[in-house]
Design goal:
homodimer; mainly alpha; two-stranded antiparallel sheet; 2 strands; DNA-binding
Chain lengths: 168, 168
DNA sequence: TTTTATTTTCAAAATATTTTGAAAATTCAA
DNA sequence: TTGAATTTTCAAAATATTTTGAAAATAAAA
């Protein structure tokens, strides 16, 4: 497989993959393009490479910057903005975990805490099943939350070394 | 908060939450409804509770059964099919991990294996960045794959007990 | 068998999301 | 300043996804 074919394949698959994770195709494709680019790119470069409109590239790049996955870099003497992606996949994963935890897990945990003290007779089977289910999800979330915190703090070597040996 | 309010809130939030994970709102709401129901429900029950059409409930229930999160149960003497959800959240999570691993992670790993042997001069910076990125993702995926396998095999007590102590 | 209840399918309609592109805003050099 | 280059915004258009509901298929009862 030639490099252009492989790039094409990677960008397209990465985009398809991302849709299973609630991330839009274009955002993932731009991320993929930047991940395999040895040098920073401009919005025009991305428009050309991926055949996208200026507005679309602009919106999705901003989203990637918000997620902390892409940085705007200013090259001396250049008028245009350049963008570059963090290449260390461990750091990428850590950043995604951190953001999703903040955006999704934490709000969900706040909701569960509220829902747990529902009024009603604990002997009523509907009340019981509701509180049991909420309680179960709350416990699970708490464990997941703690685990993710440790993963975020851990560096790659610690993870790959100690944890994986432990897991085997 | 009364039980009906709390149920409503849970079902609606669970649906919204799910959209961030590439799961459709209705499927998640049906799942939520079954999670808090102490007894099995029919498709008609779900249609009424969630104000959905018959076709919609039918499709999404089938999807939940495919994911292994919901079971069809036949009550003796009853003509209609009843459905019930696995209530143990650890088992739910394990099942989801297992399925997503099979449906997404494994195909991605096969693709990465192919993309790694792209033709071209390793000294070319484009080739180098491409193979480095793919290699990095491949390594990371391999670690994640192994970790998920252990989590799937581990039982809840082992996980919550030993693993979380380890993580602290 | 025939009838009735129930489930499944799927084309069309409704809804939601993404993409475009041109206008407005901003930035920077002259 | 002014004006050219660049970035941002956002309403409208295009596209994709979800939902409906009625017809077809299936299963059970009469």
């Amino acid at each position: 497989m030639t490099l252009p074919e492989a790039k094409q394949q990677f960008i397209s698959s990465w985009g398809a993959f991302a849709t299973h994770w609630g991330i839009n195709r274009t955002m993932a494709q731009i991320h993929a393009l930047l991940l395999i680019s040895p040098t920073p790119l401009t919005q025009d470069d991305m428009m050309t490479e991926l055949s996208l409109s200026r507005g679309n590239v602009n919106m999705n790049i901003r989203e990637l910057v918000d997620w902390g996955l892409v940085d705007r870099v200013l090259l001396p003497g250049e008028r245009k903005d350049y963008f570059t992606a963090e290449k260390d996949i461990w750091k990428v994963a850590t950043q995604i975990i951190k953001e999703r935890k903040k955006r999704e897990l934490e709000p969900m945990m706040r909701l569960l805490a509220q829902l747990e003290n529902v009024e009603g007779d604990k002997k009523d089977k509907d009340v019981k099943q509701f509180t049991d289910t909420i309680g179960g999800i709350k416990n699970f979330s708490k464990q997941a939350d703690r685990m993710l915190d440790v993963m975020i703090k851990a560096d790659e070597n610690w993870f790959v070394g100690s944890l994986l040996k432990f897991f085997k």
